[in-house]
Amino acid sequence: MAWAGTTTKIDNFDYPIELSTTPQTTFGWTIKDTSAAGAPTYLGTADDGGSVKMTMAANDEAEILTLYNNDVLNFDVAKIKNVWWVAKVAAVDAVTDCFFGVAAAYAADPDDIVTNAWFKIDGSVSTSALVVETDDATNDLDDTATGTTLAAVYKRLLIDFSQGLSDVRFYVDGARVASATTFDMSDLTSGLNVQPYVQIMKASGTGVGAVQLAQFGITYTWSYG
Asked: What is d(CA 166, CA 49) in angstroms, rounded to the nearest whole number?
């Protein structure tokens, strides 16, 4: 007998969450921390009824902090309906970038991850302007402007796959953004999977940029039998 359905998973980070390089049991959240001299922080907080916050260290060095599923790629892109983060940022400077979305296995250079769909802040261009990107290893659309910003106030950043992989759509607080661009991921290899992915990185300097997350959600279809 075949079984099929749709599942929505939501994490409000409203429990005593411990983040480390060891996968967390409830949602598999794992931290990748490339710092050397510095000691960035990544912890659950009681803010806003529960949240997760990643903050760079003040040491003058390159640092990358990534919240992901430790490269356990459970989600087939073709079966995702939508995925979202409720997020805000602080102290983003000109050498800091941030990413919110889904991606294949971790790479120190985000451009090397050839399966991804995410919102991005490129600090060298703007410390708050949101752009969006998709990549399926053939169709690579980078730095498409949304006309929206992300800073000290939470916003809901949603990626909609429900129209099919040839028409991936982006929404900020329920309003569609970058609608003049068609984001096509239809050349993905069948069954190629992704994981939730949030990253903050700085190239140098003593900046203490931070990403704070109040919610993660994903809706996807499944079948077996």
From this structure: 37
Structural domain count, the chain = 1
- For the entire predicted model, the pTM comes to 0.96
DSSP letter for 168, please.
Answer: B
Residue 192 and residue 108: Cα distance in Å, rounded?
20
Q: What is the pLDDT of residues 137-157, one digit of tens each?
A: 999 999 999 999 999 999 999
State phi, psi for 68 to the nearest 5 degrees. -155, -170
In this structure, the number of other CB atoms found within 10 A of the CB of residue 145 comes to 15
The four Cα atoms 90, 95, 100, 105 give a dihedral, to 10 degrees, of -140
Structural domain range at position 83: 3-224
State which amino acid sits at residue 164.
Answer: G
CATH number of residue 10's parent domain: 2.60.120.200
